[in-house]
Amino acid sequence: MAEQNMIREMSYLSQSKPLDPFKMWKDMYDQTESNWNEAIQESLKKESFSEGMGETLNFYLQFKELAKKTTETYLQEVNIPTRDDLAKVASLVINLEEKVDDLNDKFEDELSKVDSSKEINQLKTVVTNLEQKLDGILGVLETLSNRTVNSEQ
């Protein structure tokens, strides 16, 4: 009977459509995927799966910590900086750059103050010289006015 059903299916397939291997593969994939999906979903719901994943995670974390310590010890023995050492140096360099920038800003501010005070001092000197010259001109004018007044008398 199974043979007859198989023959009927083959004759039906041969009469209706040509053989499509990709469709057969996709159908097989869909059936397999749904079966596996159900099996996996059932196993994920079990408490034993969660316990096993927890143990695996703990073992992985312990291994990772051991590998980290071993690597750090080895790097210290061969005098090579670790990632943490490089991060600390980078942080120190950044802090130093900030301090240099701050000092540079302060220096420029002080320099601008010095330049302006030099200019002020130069202006004071020029004004003083002008006052002296004006005093001299006023003195000459007074002398001339006194002479003209005396000569008119």
- Supply Rg: 50 Å
Instruction: Report mean pLDDT, rounded to a whole number.
Output: 84
How many strands, which pairing sense, and closed or not: the largest β-sheet?
none
How far the N terminus sits from the C terminus, by CA atoms, comes to 163 Å
How many strand segments? 0
Q: Summarize the amount of helix as a percent range.
A: over 70%
Describe this structure as you would to a colleague.
It is built from 4 helices and no strands. The chain is mainly alpha-helical and 153 residues long. It is elongated, with a radius of gyration of 50 Å.
Describe the structure concisely for a colleague.
By secondary structure, the protein is mainly α. The chain has helices at 2-16, 21-44, 47-77, 83-152.
Describe how the helices and strands are arranged:
Blueprint: H1 2-16, H2 21-44, H3 47-77, H4 83-152
Main attributes?
single chain; 153 residues; mainly alpha; 4 helices; 92% helix
